[in-house]
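Morning!

This is the sequence you dropped in the shared folder:
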Amino acid sequence: MSLSNQTLSMPNVKVLRGMSPMILWAARHYFSAEVEQLENLPSGPALLVGNHNGGLVTPDSYVFAWLYMQQSGYKDVPVALVHDALFRVPGLRALMRALGMVPASGAGCLRELERGNKVLVYPAGESESMRPSRERDVVNFHGHHGFIRIAMRARVPIVPIVTAGAHDGWYVLTRGEEVARRLRLKRALRLNAFPIAFGLPTGLLLGPMPHVPLPSKIIIRALEPRLISGSPEDSEVVDAAAHAIQAEMQAVLHELTGRLGNGRRRFSRWLNGSASGQSVIGAGNAS
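The structure's back. Tokens below.
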């Protein structure tokens, strides 16, 4: 039996609350995070579709999830789809299940929606999370439109989640698709990227490895939910819906990046300007 078939989300509220002080401190003081319009998340199941940042670390995922859970009193825990290779790392599977994570698959996503959960998904996977820094302000699903079909089959709304600044914690030179192909990572680990980047703690980062993100301001906005009508087997409907969501997310990302200003990256002031120390965290619009 595959990992996807045998693993259901089993969030442990005690573990989630125990990690809150550390994650909320990082959100406030390390990332100067702003999270907006969480009121757009409906009650009940929904597919939360985000642009993917930060390689394996994805700091915005934790900022968004913990602020939403804190607002709901930890009564509504989003389920996050993560690469199934991480579930094969000794000792990680139990922790990830306690955090509400499940191996990424279409069947697993649909199952969690049918269980009444909100599911956080990043359609482009590592193609987006390991993109070069010159593309950091680009939303690109890379043709992965299956999330539209899943939402249609589950009859749940899609809520786009747009993040700006979370890819600034490292500097990626290249995705390294050709290196990944030569190393046959697709066959071994289902990975299409072997990023070459600069970041902490080693300076030079080679391949899909964890890193310590540099302090960079993060702004996250939840957009209005939308139900997609029609047949999930109609490719024209599916593609049109995906393109429309991608275009809307791109427009919002452009707006949010304009607000990052001088706080865009503290480490690389030569590239982005000096840092801002202001921290604003809340569920409503930024002032």
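Headline: The longest strand covers residues 158-164.

More detail when I'm at my desk.
O.
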